[in-house]
Amino acid sequence: MLPVGYLPCTQDPPNGANMGRVLEEIFAEARMAEESGWDGCFITEHHQQPDGYLPSPLLTAAMVGAQTRRIKVGTCVLLLPLHHPIHVAEDCAIIDLATRGRLVLSVGAGYQPPDFDLFQANPAERVARLVEGVKLIRQAWSGERFSFEGKHFRLKDALVTPAPHQRPGPPIWMASWTEKGIARAGRLADGWISDPVQSLPVIKGFVDQYRAAASAAGRKPFVCLMRDAVVADSMAQAEAESGPTMVTHRFYFEYGAFRPDEYLKDIRRPADLTFQKLAQDRLIVGSPDDCVEQLQKWKELVRPDYLIIRFRQPGGPAHQRALEIIRKFGEKVIPRI
Fold first, then answer.
1. What is the pTM of this model?
2. What sign does the dihedral 90-91-96-97 (CA atoms) show?
3. 102-111, 224-233, 238-247, 260-269: which has the minimum mean pLDDT?
């Protein structure tokens, strides 16, 4: 059975007026995921968004860990270039101890200018800071004194305590949407996280690149497939409820995130993206039976080691509907994949 993690919505459009409620909903959805057979709950990071987008994924993951007993908790992703790696290493160690080894640290280089502007960070340095950060965090988790000499971080005879519960440390997964980033994940990380918007053929090509890079670096490949899903009782109902997901994917298209593929060859503008187009080997949509059939195809062609599913977009579905979908997916889909 493929382990599946849940990615909750961490926004409250239009102005972030009810972020306390958003946190309560995240905790409730994480508890429902745990009760329904899911494997994890993962939190994202962005800054300066008017809708209150939660900016602290490790702190939120720690609170989710306190609300649960079994599922993995973690980031997806933490924007490592915006953080000092020692602070990340210390916080991760405490969360991992408190959750008895349930933490996964997923990191990324970041791409949105407001995230870097807030911390006066240079986007041109983000890759170098990401690479040094991952290396430094791993050394910090050793529980022994160490020295580190990099371009951005220099430490001599440093000691980071406490050591995490997992040894030699929590897994570090890395997300990337580019060929260079995928190769970097293969060299440095314990796993690679796909983006949620590309089609199956594009992701298959990315996966092949990642596995080759990981094998060349002497690492065991670990593929985390991320997908957006619209789950209902039927395909027709899924299409009727797909509005918020369509908004998100049209935003990605306008941002330039979509790679060219056979499905999109006639798409010229976001409005041309239809539910039918996105349902073609991209979104996971329809009834539980439909979802199982689609995910079996992904399993056969991509062979993922982990799956992260996102249901809730900033525009919906509502929290109570999300709880129903989490239970439905956990009981009727996860055991069959």
1. 0.96
2. positive
3. 260-269
Domain containing 322 equals: 4-336
Angle of helix 57-67 relative to helix 85-98, nearest 10 degrees, comes to 0
From CA 242, how far away is CA 247, in angstroms rounded?
9
User: Which CATH number fits the domain that encloses residue 148?
Assistant: 3.20.20.30
pLDDT tens readout for residues 249-282: 999 999 889 999 999 999 999 999 999 999 999 9
Contact between 177 and 186 under an 8 Å Cβ cutoff? The reply is no
- What the block records as the tokens of 83 is 């953080």
pLDDT exceeds cutoff 90 at 65:
yes
Distance CA 66, CA 62 (A): 6
Domain count, the chain: 1
Q: Which residues contact 316 (CB under 8 A, 6 or more apart)?
A: 241, 243, 244
Start-to-end C-alpha separation, the chain? 5
187-215 burial, b at 16+ Cβ within 10 Å, e below that, comes to ebbbbbbbbbbbbbebbbebbebbbebbe
